Amino acid sequence: MRSHSSALSFPLLLRRRLLTTATHFHKPTAKMANVSDNSLRESLAEKISTIQTQGNVVRQLKASGAAKLEIETAVQALNALKLERSSIEAQIQAASGDSSASRDAFRQAVVNTLERRLFYIPSFKIYRGVAGLYDYGPPGCAVKSNVLAFWRQHFVLEENMLEVDCPCVTPEVVLKASGHVDKFTDLMVKDEKTGTCYRADHLLKDYCKEKLEKDLSMTAEKAADLKHVLAMLDDLTAEQLGAKIKEYGITAPDTKNPLSDPYPFNLMFQTSIGPSGISPGYMRPETAQGIFVNFKDLYYYNGNKLPFAAAQIGQAFRNEVIAPRQGLLRVREFTLAEIEHFVDPQDKSHPKFSEVANLEFLMFPRELQMSGQSAKKLQIGEAVSKGIVNNETLGYFIGRVYLFLTELGIDKQRLRFRQHLANEMAHYAADCWDAEIESSYGWIECVGIADRSAYDLRAHSDKSGVSLVAQEKYSEPREVEVTNNNTVNFTTLRFNTPVKYILDCGCKIVAALKLIVAPVKKELGLAFKGNQKIIVEALEAMDEKEAMEMKAALELKGEVEFLVCNLGKTVTIKKNMVSISKEKKKEHQRVFTPSVIEPSFGIGRIIYCLYEHSFYTRPSKTSDEQLNVFRFPPRVAPIKCTVFPLVQNEQYENVAKLISKSLTVAGVSHKIDITGTSIGKRYARTDELGVPFAITVDKTTSVTIRDRDSKNQVRVDVEKVASVVKEVTDGFKTWADILNEYEIHTSESADD
Amino acid sequence: MRSHSSALSFPLLLRRRLLTTATHFHKPTAKMANVSDNSLRESLAEKISTIQTQGNVVRQLKASGAAKLEIETAVQALNALKLERSSIEAQIQAASGDSSASRDAFRQAVVNTLERRLFYIPSFKIYRGVAGLYDYGPPGCAVKSNVLAFWRQHFVLEENMLEVDCPCVTPEVVLKASGHVDKFTDLMVKDEKTGTCYRADHLLKDYCKEKLEKDLSMTAEKAADLKHVLAMLDDLTAEQLGAKIKEYGITAPDTKNPLSDPYPFNLMFQTSIGPSGISPGYMRPETAQGIFVNFKDLYYYNGNKLPFAAAQIGQAFRNEVIAPRQGLLRVREFTLAEIEHFVDPQDKSHPKFSEVANLEFLMFPRELQMSGQSAKKLQIGEAVSKGIVNNETLGYFIGRVYLFLTELGIDKQRLRFRQHLANEMAHYAADCWDAEIESSYGWIECVGIADRSAYDLRAHSDKSGVSLVAQEKYSEPREVEVTNNNTVNFTTLRFNTPVKYILDCGCKIVAALKLIVAPVKKELGLAFKGNQKIIVEALEAMDEKEAMEMKAALELKGEVEFLVCNLGKTVTIKKNMVSISKEKKKEHQRVFTPSVIEPSFGIGRIIYCLYEHSFYTRPSKTSDEQLNVFRFPPRVAPIKCTVFPLVQNEQYENVAKLISKSLTVAGVSHKIDITGTSIGKRYARTDELGVPFAITVDKTTSVTIRDRDSKNQVRVDVEKVASVVKEVTDGFKTWADILNEYEIHTSESADD
């Protein structure tokens, strides 16, 4: 719970933006469990059909008396497919509604492997650690750096984005403008004796859940009340929360001591800039503000042209009240990668939309959620043309995010794009979609893609007094009425012209009509003689409303009764006595605040989900144990390849060192292992790190390359091996290409 | 000034480590100015000789009636060389002792270009900024990310380092152990009326300098006093600083108000972890501590083998009292890249040392500094073998740092390795060298390379109670005396054995001799009869010193007088009556705290120096103005190449777009510019961003590639152009190779 004000206010949007990286898990409903189950069952059906096909291939090869080698390879592939089938079956079991225990067991297996192999380490462990802080150990650090490199390639480079790098330390004024200083809070209660803090909503939730589960004697009425509280939890104010805690007699979980009233706790890490102690600052809770405050310079850098996107990768900080059970998913410091795509609000088309329009994936629009249905496959092109997704640019980014995640190795069947419900969005947001990935914790929000309209630029423009706008130059000047105008030049409006404006909720500018009232002195003189001057003054003194009424009446009836106070009487004004018109002016350009479309990536969450989606086990040949494997695609794998001399032998070791050198020159990260451990054990060790390829030195002129998942091997010349591995890890070739090009190697002794 | 205790204490080392990234500039002495001058003059001499050679080539070509094209190319190369000569001449002028004005002008030209092209931006500019915080704009961000990628390739990948990624938020206990909480301070004085803060040493320095420059009536005695203060500035205590400020009557510079006494201000940004306010934390002032606290896990990950290195790239924070004039060189938040290479203190050889041993570069050993000489060229192999550099591993890293910096584009002539003077190093440090780069600010410390011995691991071991040690297993057990032992197992020492130890300054462990005193009861009985028991007890009760004296006396004279208090008299003890020996035990392994060798890189400083070393100007062909160029090597350049249609024309634009696509596929960052601006202006615009290659579309089948610095052009087929640019930007080919392989293109209209 990030805010406690009315459903459509600003803080809700704030909350939504920030959810991307730390809080909020959708309660797994039966519906959602079904979706997941369905998608896994689909995967299983696909796998079973592939196994049948491969089975037929093997039978045909045998029947046609094919070469032994060819048959063996086909059998190996078949066995690999069967293992994958068992893995999916295990996942279905784990994911099924009733077996949260086996979900937990699956997660435990993943997390144990991750910790044991130092993918991550609780930070400052020798000092008993700090909840919510984690280190990436060597393989985790490599995975992270690969994910970020791919993000840069996929977004910054391919879309020509302007990348910036701003500090984490942020002065208060910036976060005051963005709303974080006032609204970025959780409601907290304190144990009145020990001072221990708890999140008020968590305590209430836990109480309700436990009651509903365990108190079987409860009346139906009472149960309905508790369910209602659970449903309303995110919308309760501090007072309402406090009242419920009192009503239910909830006490501190550890001590049973009474609790304080709920009060807001700001989630930013506060500090002080400079030695005087009078300049408060915060560690940024997101990277986006650094982009907004630089809009003017970036727009200029882009040749004063829209649209353009700026991007930033960096640390963000959130001082969670308590770091709960979700491990790597809820942390106090994390890496964000954010894009702010600035676009003309009148034209949100995207020139490259056609490149993604045919992509089809699981989408979960608002309407399906409201009517209790499940996510379904939609073409993004169709979703935009039907108005389900608000505009092309938003749709383009949804498509690009889909490509990014699936190319990283996220399972398509466990990825969906969920639209925000109306009450989840701020009033100014045009549309928001979250990329949610299913993990053992349920559906996790990993990327938020929001059309935030002009909100952020306006907020900073307002606070700083610096106009953050774009211009569209007209080829011909246009005559326009000065009238209601959302896109009027903000600075001009505020400082240079007499046009009235209203700042509505700090964000919406309404420029009222500007009217020109021009009394026709000659006619008035003819009609009213000596009173002419007083009447002229009275006409000119009309306010907008009066003038508009007179204009309407004159147009309708040709004349109107007009009370002149200074004369103490009413006179009849005719159409020819006054001209009332809207002001018109020639404009050479349109000045407007751009809209921003913001895809925001929680890198740590994506990586954790990737770990779960990549993990599987397969039986060992030599023992009863299950061997762990991460099936990372080469671009993600922490190390691309290992080099093993088959046996301890100086000649083989020298070849291994030679290969290692050529891999270094080719820029392929690798590990050389010249210990005498059995080759099977060495394979198992590196499978567990997700290393996709292993080079085994069993001759001095040629060596074998083994593929992690299929365990197929090919034989390649020593001189060529580095470039072959490079091609397949850089994605220029697939393993299937390699199998086609090189001699397939079968070995009795090889795999464990 | 980071510390104010005695010269050899811990904080000095702390200071030295941290200097890498924020403070401390060596006062430019005449000596140093000479060095710089000399090195530039050497560059100039080299350049002049190359120009002569190239001049001869041109003459010969003309004489031999060579092809027009060949002559033109040679002339172009000659002209490029001449421009470089003028640039060096300008730098000599700028660097010369008297022309600090032209140094400032050079810097201003660089900084103006950097700010105008958004290499960096003062952070939060629309809110009037925060001193000491900068954003990297698009080209700066790209340069930084290229520098870091090369750092990863050069160190992490090539040396198989274990990279980790730890949080910035750090609990107090960790920085208490490292000494930062108590010692990481600057001395500050406050304007007693306004509260404005100043660094005490800065005020004193400014006062002394101004006096010396401007007060010509000063006595020689007074001048000597001021010079002495300047020389001692870094070593003054708070009291001494305060006394001098009083003595000289120094007041607040802006208001002339009186100043407070100096008091220490901790330079870390403080915050609070969690909601209770009782867990203080800090934003890390360096990344190294995150590695030290993980030593145990990393050692295990490395198969319990030494040596190994861990590395970390990340943000570090320093709440400077005031952000002074050095712009990008002294900032409050910066990127560090640190390596901790753990090594057996008894074996600091390095297996790859021979790969760097022949490198020769400017070194500035302690002895040369003390005797007032200047830095000189030394072979690193020789420096190690002569003992100038303490050990091979330290020497290896010095060599690798040299390669890293020069391959980035740092001028060899303006790079030196300066050894710390004895009083700059902590007592436990074995040796320290700084890579210093000369800039318009003088010699800037950009990389520190220190052998920190076992200090850091011991400090954390001591504070956490967790042993951070390595083992060397013996193939055969060895019999060893339990004696003075720096490498004794720390945990065993503290918790399991009765061996005495002393913690000296919290870091040095001295295990005293353990003696076994074994009275020979039979002989004592024969000699002393009924007193035997009392004498046995007295012998066994001897303390270590007494026992050692008796042992020595017995070995020397065969007998000794021994006062037995309980008998009230002296007895004669003979050699056969007691055996005194050192305890021996069989050891199967040696347990020791590894030494750490730490290369620590201030990335922002390196990048700033790189900007200065890469910047030059050349005259425009069409106007009087000077055009700015950054001569970044391709790997550093923010954008590798631009694509320009020569004239606005749909056919050419389509070709340009096609080339842009193929560059994207090849992963070459580029920019396409289809504006109608003259080609010369477009070249000038991208020269100023340091873009090394420009592709100009002047036909539909083939295009030209222009090299930024020589302005030479070659003609290449459209299909081939992306791969040609990729080869040369990836470093697989040089521009000279390209000139050899492809048709040289001469154009009348081309360059501005």
UniProtKB/TrEMBL annotation, chains A, B:
SMART domains named among the record's database cross-references: WHEP-TRS
Annotated EC: 6.1.1.14
Keywords assigned by UniProt, alphabetized: Aminoacyl-tRNA synthetase, ATP-binding, Coiled coil, Cytoplasm, Ligase, Nucleotide-binding, Protein biosynthesis, Transferase
Coiled-coil ranges from the UniProt annotation: 71-98
GO molecular function, one term: ATP binding
Reaction catalysed by this enzyme: tRNA(Gly) + glycine + ATP = glycyl-tRNA(Gly) + AMP + diphosphate
Primary subcellular site in the record, as a coarse category: cytoplasm
GO cellular component: cytoplasm
PROSITE patterns per UniProt: AA_TRNA_LIGASE_II, WHEP_TRS_1, WHEP_TRS_2
Gene3D superfamilies: 3.30.40.230, 3.30.720.200, Anticodon-binding domain, Bira Bifunctional Protein, Domain 2, S15/NS1, RNA-binding
Pfam families: HGTP_anticodon, tRNA-synt_2b, WHEP-TRS
Keyword Heme assigned: no
Subcellular location: Cytoplasm
GO biological process, one term: translation
Residue ranges of domain WHEP-TRS in the record: 43-99
Domain annotation Aminoacyl-transfer RNA synthetases class-II family profile: ranges: 104-619
InterPro entries: aa-tRNA-synt_IIb, aa-tRNA-synth_II, aa-tRNA-synth_II/BPL/LPL, Anticodon-bd, Anticodon-bd_dom_sf, Gly-tRNA_synthase/POLG2, GlyRS-like_core, tRNA-synt_gly
Quaternary assembly: Homodimer.
Family: Belongs to the class-II aminoacyl-tRNA synthetase family.
Protein name: glycine--tRNA ligase
Source organism of this protein record: Penstemon smallii
